[in-house]
Amino acid sequence: MRRFSLKMALCSTALLLAGCDLALEVPNPSSGAVTAVPVRKVSGMAPAEANQAFATVSRNLEPVAERSCRELTSGINCDFLIRIDPNSKAPPNAYQSQDRNGRPVITFTRAMLAQIANRDELAFVMGHEAAHHIRGHLARQQQNAVAGAVLLAGLASLAGGSAAEISNAQDIGASVGARSYSKNFELEADELGTLITHKAGYRPSVGIQFFYRLPDPGDRFLGTHPANPDRVRVVQRTIERYGLD
Questions:
Q1: pLDDT at 165 over 50
Q2: Whole-prediction pTM value?
């Protein structure tokens, strides 16, 4: 009986932590829920073209991202390092991280570059990743993970869980906590990334086309990314609000 009660308590708390992500599983246009974005097949740049585009876009966008970072933050490292992943076999991905000294690093894999059609799309993805650092999403995600781990581990302890059960609850809490606001983080980065893209001399209205080729994650419970139509709407609203192109 103790195990059943402990499991139910952990599940209930996990739902509470991630409640902001809960949505209808079946899109319903009449209720204002998301609708599908058509998938458009567009060939990516050839390797040589992608390398040249990466060098040019990085050179143009990094100073803009750094300036935006200094204007919108205080006390963090704004000296972006934009690089290509040395592992040529890494799957398609672009991500923001920090090195040991706190320097923000934006990494593109070769496979990711092969899926990007033009420099506007490349600049948009790059600006999006820079925005993650500027908005402090890594630190906020870590705080959410710690809060979730502490909450569920404490609940497991109060329920009389074993050391293994408490450790498992801690892992679950950290995972749920880290995911609880990840969709909001993506939308925040889309908005600021749109502005960075424009300021760097590229067209977010063209860069947004990248979303039309991404598999749509939908609006899944505990999903880490918003539905593509939601992301498109954020970018379009930002373009309209600031009169961008």
A1: yes
A2: 0.70
